[in-house]
Amino acid sequence: MAMLINGQPGEQISALDRGLAYGDGIYRTMEIRAGQPRLWAWQYRRLVADARRLRLPLPDEALLLDEIGQLADGLEQGVAKIVLTRGVGARGYAMPADCKATRMVSVTAWAGYPPERARDGVHVRWCDTRLACQPLLAGIKHLNRLENVLARSEWSDPDIHEGLMLDTRGLLVEATMSNVYLVSGQQIITPKLDQNGVQGMLRDWLFVHARQLGYQLEEAEIIPARLLQAEQVFLSNSLIGLWPVASIDGQALPQQHACCARLQALLALQR
Amino acid sequence: MAMLINGQPGEQISALDRGLAYGDGIYRTMEIRAGQPRLWAWQYRRLVADARRLRLPLPDEALLLDEIGQLADGLEQGVAKIVLTRGVGARGYAMPADCKATRMVSVTAWAGYPPERARDGVHVRWCDTRLACQPLLAGIKHLNRLENVLARSEWSDPDIHEGLMLDTRGLLVEATMSNVYLVSGQQIITPKLDQNGVQGMLRDWLFVHARQLGYQLEEAEIIPARLLQAEQVFLSNSLIGLWPVASIDGQALPQQHACCARLQALLALQR
């Protein structure tokens, strides 16, 4: 792994950083292909949106791209992560008047997930951990991720690839690290993320590109029973791409639909 | 400020620490008097409870006390902070099987808040930021504190000393950095913290000691209107001690009750 912290090579940050003290920051994880971050425009758009909501200063796009490029130079396949925090602050929750943000950019070589997951589908489970409803933080990829940590700690079976999460109202939100979609005919629905959840950049991408293939993607309030009625369920995140769901808690799901495979093919064309 | 990280002098931690990545950890802040942490037994009891709930390994009590003692040696008055995280982990939410926790202990000289706040009372406001309902994290002093950061960012007027917070149901929970109590006769009520909020160690202390002065402290579901009906409202936290509330959003509160002053006097006798 190679890392730049505020542009300087290093792997350490101040123990007084608000990112550690309060989770006061945001992050993004992205695929590296041939030395470049994939789907960068979509990633940066999300960083802009999240930084604005938390009133975090956002570094220049060119600077971030340059730092990723430096670290990923010559790397065929890998993962980059950007973490932005509100920097070192005095004791107390108040945001520093003169905020010196901390910027961490790291790149790691990584060969990707086993390709059969995208082809044959993944096995998922329902998590008992439910997501709270907090409109002020909903959708943001912030550093307050204890709910996801607790949900992911519910299983250790390596043959279970993801865990679906409901919120405290009993509505489907997401999987621990991915967004969720239900296909019926030409319609795709995905949970509204106005109360909780993380808005992944591939979710944004799908809203624009599903239409190209004749699908209509819409947000909906989704109760768990609807998953078993769907013709196909699939997941998205920037590192997994799109994974069809083969089973939920051991119950096989129908794979009557080519939707996920068609979207995968379209996604594969993107840089 | 002086700091030990896993027992070694230093002020930097790995940028890969899960405390930063996910807020996967807990903390406590405490007063130092004459080189020793005040009310240590109460602080440690809370650390034990919080670590157990998040399945974090907890360092030995004697080790923590020794490290605080080293840093606070010769210091008449100050603040100590303990931060415990799940340490450095691989990418992903899953808890590392072989968790090497990170332990940060720091001590800073600090003369305390202006004493007139404890004597004459403080001016508080209602925050618009509401706390989500999440039983799995309720009461824990964990590192996911964005809600408090957002609430504290609602005001910058130095004459407003604290902000009261409701949850998404409209019930009183706490103030941004303190617990809240309403006095009526010999009865004191404080919000239940089964859905959200931070269980301060002074709150535990009050449950045991209010009784000594003939008060009955109980948890309750408290709607905002009840604050204006109380004979006294006061706040607790380990650094402020106990502060009576003089006004809420400019509306003066009655100070007909000696309750807070009597509890302050009892607290002053504690080591």
TrEMBL record, chains A, B:
<dbReference type="GO" id="GO:0008153">
    <property type="term" value="P:4-aminobenzoate biosynthetic process"/>
</dbReference>
<dbReference type="GO" id="GO:0005829">
    <property type="term" value="C:cytosol"/>
</dbReference>
<dbReference type="GO" id="GO:0030170">
    <property type="term" value="F:pyridoxal phosphate binding"/>
</dbReference>
<dbReference type="GO" id="GO:0046656">
    <property type="term" value="P:folic acid biosynthetic process"/>
</dbReference>
<protein>
    <recommendedName>
        <fullName>aminodeoxychorismate lyase</fullName>
        <ecNumber>4.1.3.38</ecNumber>
    </recommendedName>
</protein>
<keyword id="KW-0663">Pyridoxal phosphate</keyword>
<dbReference type="InterPro" id="IPR018300">
    <property type="entry name" value="Aminotrans_IV_CS"/>
</dbReference>
<comment type="similarity">
    <text>Belongs to the class-IV pyridoxal-phosphate-dependent aminotransferase family.</text>
</comment>
<dbReference type="InterPro" id="IPR001544">
    <property type="entry name" value="Aminotrans_IV"/>
</dbReference>
<dbReference type="GO" id="GO:0008696">
    <property type="term" value="F:4-amino-4-deoxychorismate lyase activity"/>
</dbReference>
<dbReference type="InterPro" id="IPR043131">
    <property type="entry name" value="BCAT-like_N"/>
</dbReference>
<dbReference type="InterPro" id="IPR017824">
    <property type="entry name" value="Aminodeoxychorismate_lyase_IV"/>
</dbReference>
<comment type="pathway">
    <text>Cofactor biosynthesis; tetrahydrofolate biosynthesis; 4-aminobenzoate from chorismate: step 2/2.</text>
</comment>
<keyword id="KW-0289">Folate biosynthesis</keyword>
<dbReference type="InterPro" id="IPR043132">
    <property type="entry name" value="BCAT-like_C"/>
</dbReference>
<dbReference type="InterPro" id="IPR050571">
    <property type="entry name" value="Class-IV_PLP-Dep_Aminotrnsfr"/>
</dbReference>
<dbReference type="InterPro" id="IPR036038">
    <property type="entry name" value="Aminotransferase-like"/>
</dbReference>
<dbReference type="Pfam" id="PF01063">
    <property type="entry name" value="Aminotran_4"/>
</dbReference>
<keyword id="KW-0456">Lyase</keyword>
<comment type="subunit">
    <text>Homodimer.</text>
</comment>
